[in-house]
């Protein structure tokens, strides 16, 4: 019986040796092509695009994803700028160097999309820059600039909101400049078509204007522009504001509501300020 078992097992062992699979040569070109097709399909699924998406579209979307992967370095440099701007004794040379270090990174391919949102001014290198982008009404007697916000919307509209603190028993004053914006790789143009001051008066003669800024740097949390007509490095540093409505409420000024929603704002009416013309 033992001999019979050995006889039966011998052919099976031989058969396994004979039919053992052999490793086929690797076709690198085919593997690369397969990975490329998988990558393209992944990009299509992420964006919800049609199946006939062009290679140019795929390249553009892939560059966006690559830019997002570089946000770690960008965020680190942006944090450095904010840290320097928020110091009590600011070092202008250090801020210049930090902004230029951030600006040296490649610009976002979809910079217009990335710039959307609400931004809060955290530091300005000069008062001229603040007046260049806003109304300059914070320079009148008994007034100081409390806050300034820049809002860039998806439809191309924009708003510059100034909150001015008045010395004495007076409420904060809000000036609102609205219009359209154009965002380019290195340029931000704001075209103000309507300006309403804190008393509700519309300013058109000099305030309704076009403002061209140099877009120096942009990250998820930071927007740096310069008043190009004043000084090449006249930085205005904005930090992203995630709750704009709450920020205005804390500053005790009314929200930015459209004209047809004014009745819902509680009937707020700004009192006369010291600099208003007497009737």
What does the radius of gyration come to?
30 Å
**What is the CATH class name of the domain at 115-216 and 223-242?**
Mainly Beta
Strand order of the largest sheet: 1-2-3-4-5-6-7-8
Helical content class: 25-40%
CATH architecture of the domain at 115-216 and 223-242, by name, is: Beta Barrel
Shape: globular
Number of strands: 8
Instruction: Give a quick account of the main beta sheet: strands, pairing sense, barrel closure.
Output: 8 strands, antiparallel, barrel
Detail the poorly predicted runs: 2-21, 259-279
Percentage of residues in DSSP E strands: 15-25%
Structural class of the helix and strand makeup?
Answer: alpha+beta
Question: Strand-and-helix sequence, N→C?
Answer: HHHHHHEHEEEEEEEH
- Tell me, rounded to a whole number, the average pLDDT: 78
Determine the N-to-C terminus distance: 125 Å
Count of DSSP H/I helices: 8
Instruction: Please name the CATH topology of the domain at 115-216 and 223-242.
Output: Lipocalin
């Amino acid at each position: 019986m033992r001999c019979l078992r050995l006889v039966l097992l011998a052919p099976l062992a031989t058969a396994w040796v004979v039919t053992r699979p052999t490793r086929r040569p690797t076709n690198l070109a085919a593997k690369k092509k397969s990975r490329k097709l998988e990558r393209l399909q992944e990009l299509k699924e992420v964006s919800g695009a049609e199946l006939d998406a062009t290679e140019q579209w795929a390249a553009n979307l892939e560059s966006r994803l690559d830019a997002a992967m570089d946000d770690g370095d960008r965020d680190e440099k942006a944090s450095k700028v904010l840290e320097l701007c928020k110091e009590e004794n600011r070092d202008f040379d250090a801020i210049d160097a930090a902004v230029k270090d951030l600006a040296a990174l490649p610009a976002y391919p979809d910079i217009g999309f990335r710039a959307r949102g609400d931004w809060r001014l955290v530091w300005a290198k000069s008062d001229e820059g603040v007046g260049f982008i806003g109304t300059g009404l914070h320079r009148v007697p008994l007034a100081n600039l409390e806050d300034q916000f820049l809002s860039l919307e998806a439809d191309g509209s924009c708003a510059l909101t100034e909150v001015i603190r008045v010395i004495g028993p007076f409420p904060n004053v809000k000036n609102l400049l609205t219009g359209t914006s154009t965002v380019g790789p290195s340029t931000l143009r704001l075209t103000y078509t309507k300006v309403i001051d804190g008393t509700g008066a519309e300013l058109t003669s000099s305030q309704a204007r076009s403002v061209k800024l140099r877009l120096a740097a942009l990250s998820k949390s930071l927007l740096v522009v310069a008043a190009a007509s004043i000084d090449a490095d006249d930085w205005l540093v904005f930090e992203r504001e995630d709750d704009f409505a709450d920020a205005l409420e804390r500053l005790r000024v009314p929200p930015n509501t459209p004209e047809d929603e004014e009745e819902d704002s509680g009937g707020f009416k700004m009192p006369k300020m010291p600099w208003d013309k007497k009737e």
